[in-house]
């Protein structure tokens, strides 16, 4: 076995182990902060797997979007509302766990089926484009994948408008969940200029 | 365009001369650039710390470090040694694992980004195709380390500092990426080597700063904000937050933050010089000088000369920018957090978007000047 292939194998093993153990940790750990940081680790290792597959642009995009934006925002949100409170015990926790386990197992079997039925071997390994993939991705985004690309941006716009409506409480006169009139007081005091004229 | 020194190739050929296989030669080669980057980064930090002390002293009409070596040049080494032998303290109620991992997560992406800094045609660690995009992606990891250390310190000032750092870094990354995108649009490539080559046509006249003046200013402001330098050092504003996310840190862990911020400053200065100031290019093209002196461009003497000029020019431009950053730090007041976010979202973001649009339009209208 040549050195390059050995290195590739070791990297693949380590990255897969980190992905699997990290993902288990995200689900099973009690502390939500640890879960969020582990999620970042999982995203990073997935980027590493992309690198191993010679898709450096996808790897960098994965780091930028998932680690740099999504995960930072998750951690940010957790830390802004980090209250130390015990969660209420749920009565039918067992039946819920059974349902979620069965759903997860169904999804897993679907993935395994895809893995077994799909033909993974490339017809000609010489066709791998490597560094040129950035250009190809750009071409595809602006030709045959234009509609999904634009629809995704509309989806993000909708999420943004929703966030603004939720954050600016003076837009709505009553609370969505309780129906009571909303407390219109701003969280911070109304800002007065610091240097007022003292005449 | 393949001229200039290729050290890796020569080194491998040299080792093969001893009868080693090319794979073994490659493995012996691999640690050398890594070591070189670490040494270059640390030496750069030492120089910058000395400059910071001396320039701040001059700005405040003091003398600054004087006794450690001539003009106090050994002062940064003394600082470093002090931090190295200090006791490593983890506060009793802090979260030990995250407390240790935070500084590492801050430092590693910064050092990794040195991968793409070119000092000459082949004088860089790796000419990866995604080039400058790698730096943007890596620099987005840093806020996680800051949030981590802010949270793990179990101190409200640290947490506030970490949150501020993340908010600042997220909001200034967007104009930064947009102004880089305008350059990429003109170059038709993400590779830093291509970006420099595209500016090398007519010496100082073809540098990107003349074609992207707005992008240059936006990039420089954002780079300063990303480095958390004054006027944007809100995450560690000492009057409000003690020292922000670094409050609980001591010894080598504190030194990692310190190193990280200075390496980041040098890296930003290097990238500004690569993106806007012609990188390793001499103000007068070296080919013209060679032609004037009637020397062939591929002569070994000229190649070594070009390579050394390239390194000197890159470092010179970068340290000029570092000088401006230090001068800014000691002469400007700090902005408030609302002013900071206003500047980022309401001013820099629209301006950089407009800059991108105008660049695209100009590229269509004048393809010979704006990268055909």
Overview of this protein structure:
The complex is a heterodimer of chains A (199) and B (372). Helix content of chain A is 64%, strand content 0%. Chain A has six helices and no strands. The longest helix of chain A is centred in the N-terminal third of the chain and has 26 residues, at 3-28. Chain A is extended. The relative contact order of chain A is 0.05. With 372 residues, chain B is mainly alpha-helical. Chain B has one domain. Helix content of chain B is 67%, strand content 0%. Chain B has helices at residues 7-16, 22-29, 31-59, 75-85, 96-112, 131-139, 142-152, 156-187, 192-198, 208-211, 213-226, 238-241, 251-276, 286-292, 300-331, 337-365. In chain B, helix 3 (31-59) packs across helix 15, helix 8 runs parallel beside helix 16 (337-365) and helix 11 packs antiparallel against helix 16 (337-365). In chain B, 44% of the residues are buried. The model of chain B has no long low-confidence stretch (mean pLDDT 83). The A-B interface holds A 2-4, 33, 37, 40, 44, 56-57, 60-61, 63-64, 67-69, 71-73, 75-76, 79-80, 82, 130-132, 134 and B 23, 27, 98, 128-130, 133-134, 136-138, 140-141, 143-144, 147-148, 150-151, 159, 162-163, 166-167, 170, 173, 190. Chain B: GO terms for molecular function: NADH dehydrogenase activity; oxidoreductase activity, acting on NAD(P)H, quinone or similar compound as acceptor; quinone binding.
